């Protein structure tokens, strides 16, 4: 069985991936809505709860507070630190994962066709690359503005480097598209 093109492995795998993408995106919209309501009202309901934790580090007790956002129809919970940084990064994480899944599904849809050096494939690689760079930059800005003493540069750096890789892939696909157009004109 071939990997790319019509009736390929990729062609048939795009359907379960698409179903997963739609389900994850709808659930993320629900959680993003709960996060927005909690961020502005700071009130809990049956889908939003706050838990208090006591931790001991080297004979010191510290209290921390987490907020939990409950997914509908399941027992899954998204828990994050009850702070501006925690809620902002959780919001950014869900938004970026939904964006990545939707854009990758569009790319898979283009690659499952016989002619995959299309303008849409090039455009989707470009959107994914610049989107990842934007999410990495926003993540870095949130870290810098909310906790300048302690932050990890690794997650934003991974987003930015991955975005640059996808921009590089966009250039390869653009070059392939140009070669294919030239080849079609000479035949």
Question: How would you portray this structure in words?
Answer:
The protein has 187 residues and is an alpha+beta fold. It is 65% helix and 14% strand. It contains four helices and three strands. The protein has helices at residues 9-41, 84-111, 119-146, 154-186, and strands at residues 48-57, 60-70, 77-81. β1 (48-57) and β2 form a beta hairpin.
Provide keyphrases for this structure.
3-stranded antiparallel β-sheet; membrane; DUF2975; transmembrane; 4 helices; transmembrane helix; 187 residues
Q: Please tell me the overall pLDDT.
A: 85
**How far from one another are the termini?**
29 Å
Number of strands: 3
Query: Could you give the order of strands across the largest sheet?
Result: 1-2-3
**Gross geometry:** elongated
H and E string: HEEEHHH
pLDDT < 50 stretches = none
Residues in β-strands, percent: 5-15%
Tell me the number of helical segments per DSSP (H or I, 4 or more residues long): 4
Please state the structural category.
Answer: alpha+beta
The biggest sheet amounts to:
3 strands, antiparallel
Helical residue percent? 55-70%
Radius of gyration: 21 Å
InterPro entries: DUF2975 (IPR021354)
Keywords: Membrane, Transmembrane, Transmembrane helix
Pfam families: DUF2975
Transmembrane segments: 12-40, 86-107, 127-147, 153-169
């Amino acid at each position: 069985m071939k990997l790319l093109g019509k009736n390929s492995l990729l062609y048939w795998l795009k359907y379960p991936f698409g179903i997963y993408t739609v389900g994850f995106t709808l659930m993320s919209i629900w959680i993003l809505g709960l996060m927005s309501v909690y961020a502005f009202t700071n009130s809990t309901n049956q889908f939003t709860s706050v838990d208090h934790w006591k931790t001991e580090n080297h004979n010191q007790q510290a209290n921390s507070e987490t907020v939990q956002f409950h997914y509908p129809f399941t027992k899954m919970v998204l828990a994050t630190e009850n702070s501006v940084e925690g809620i902002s990064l959780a919001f950014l994480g869900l938004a970026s994962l939904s964006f990545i899944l939707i854009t990758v599904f569009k790319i898979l849809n283009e690659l499952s066709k016989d002619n995959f050096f299309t303008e849409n494939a090039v455009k989707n690689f470009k959107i994914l690359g610049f989107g990842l760079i934007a999410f990495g930059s926003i993540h870095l800005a949130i870290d810098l503005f909310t906790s300048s003493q302690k932050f990890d540069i690794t997650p934003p750096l991974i987003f930015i480097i991955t975005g640059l890789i996808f921009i590089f892939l966009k250039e390869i696909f653009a070059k392939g598209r140009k070669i294919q157009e030239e080849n079609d004109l000479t035949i």
